[in-house]
Structure formats: structure tokens, C-alpha cells
Amino acid sequence: MIAPSLLSADFARLADEAQRVADADWLHVDVMDAHFVPNLTLGLPVVEAIQRVSPIPLDCHLMIEAPERWAPGYAEAGSRNVTVHAEACTGDPRALARDLKAAGALAGLALKPGTPLQDYLEVLPDFDTLLVMTVEPGFGGQEFIADVLPKVREARRLVETGHLRLFVEVDGGVNDDTIGQAAEAGADVFVAGSAVYGAEDPARAIAGLRERARAAAAARAR
Ligand code: DX5
Ligand code: ZN
User: Fold this and answer.
1) Which atom of ligand 1 is nearest to the CA of 144?
2) Which of 59, 128, 171, 188 is labelled catalytic?
């Protein structure tokens, strides 16, 4: 699946910008609180407004402190998937996953580049999505960190051996040059901000990314 990130869109025209990526699978919305990450973006009222006009399901990526308090509201707003950062959870992430699912969303757990997968193996069975950050969270337009790929590979192995059942999503620096490596490593959801909204024709950019991911995944399967 391809999930364009609204972070690189024109914030003054969010409804139009959502329409421009109607061919994609999920619309990725980066919520930043200026505490968990240095940047500040948008919050629940704006997500509720985007939800009303988006042609595709919302994938909310919460880069915020106290996710236990705020994340369920994003699920109640109708998001398809709500992802919280493992590093921000103060309580048991499994309880939060259950709350998100009870509110009708898929539950996602995000890991910063330096956070080991091993630390969360016990809680991941309760999640539907593992978001592997391929940049430090906070800003769009950064360079893809290929050193994170072993984490994607390990997650895919755990899915293939039946230990986990979840989407493996990559976020940060995903573009025509890097999406193949991520797909080859086993990712199946690809967030792309600047590669989609920075392109003259976002629909073409999405098709190109999808094609490259498909080809790399097929090569991997052989
Ligand atoms: C970064 C965000 C990403 C960002 C990706 O903290 O989580 O979703 O929008 O932007 P690009 O694709 O430009 O790296
Ligand atoms: Zn994101």
C-alpha cells in the first residue's frame, strides 16, 4: 500500500490535497506536539475535518507524548489506522492497542530508528501495524536511513513464521530510489511525503512508487 504523507502538502488546501492522492491506499497524517518531536503540526479537530473530505482512509501517525490520553480520539474520529510511538507510551502499549481497536481502528506501534524491535516483541501480537521509522521523526524531506532495514527484515521474518500478524510500514525518505530496498526487506506499507507531494503529478508518482515496490517484492519472493 502507498500512503502519501500530508506533511508535504499545502496546509491551506488540505481538502484539495487529499483529492490529489485519491489513487493511494491510505492518507498518512503526521500529528506532532512539539514535545515528543521538536515540530508542531496539527491535531484532532483538523484530523476530523480531513476525515470528512478524504477520499481514502486515514493513517494517523501520532508523534506525541501521552498517547494513552489522546490516541483513542483519533480512532473515534474514524481513522483506519492509528499509530503511537513505543517510546512515548508510559503504560502498557497492549492496553492502548485494545482501546484503539475497540474504537474501530487498526492499532499501530511506531519505532524510531534506534529503538530495537526486540524490546517490543511481547506487545506486538496486539498490534495490526508496525511502523518502522526510516528517518528520525519530526520533519519531512530527510534522507532514508538504510541501516534500519534489518529491523524491517526481522519483522517480515516474524510475520512469515507466524509469530506476528501485522502490516510492516516504513516512513521517512521513501522515494523512487529507496522504495525498492524497503520492499525487498519486506515492508508492505510505504509512506511518502515529498516524493508524492513534491512531484508535479502526485497520481503518477504514486503509480511509479507502487510499480517499483511491486517489482522489488516480486524479486524478493523468487
Ligand atoms: C516524519 C514523518 C513522515 C514524513 C515523511 O516524522 O513521520 O511521515 O512526512 O516525509 P518524507 O517522505 O518527505 O520523508
Ligand atoms: Zn509519519
Assistant:
1) 14
2) 171
Q: How many CA atoms lie within 13 A of 195 on its CB side?
A: 24
Calpha distance 205→129 (Å, rounded): 24
For ligand 2, the distance from its centroid to the CA atom of residue 91, given in whole angstroms, is 22
* Residue 172 Cβ contacting ligand 1 at under 6 Å: yes
Note whether 3 and 24 are within 8 A (CB): yes
Q: How do residues 89-106 score in pLDDT, each as one tens digit? A: 999 999 999 999 999 999
pLDDT at 118: 98
C-alpha 180 chain-centroid distance: 17
Q: Which atom of ligand 1 is nearest to the CA of 194?
A: 13
Report how far residue 137's alpha carbon sits from residue 194's, in angstroms, rounded to the nearest whole number.
15
Q: What pLDDT digit, counting tens, does each position of 12-53 carry?
A: 999 999 999 999 999 999 999 999 999 999 999 999 999 999
In the annotation, is 10 catalytic? no
176 is a catalytic site residue? no
DSSP 183-215: HHHT--EEEESHHHHTSS-HHHHHHHHHHHHHH
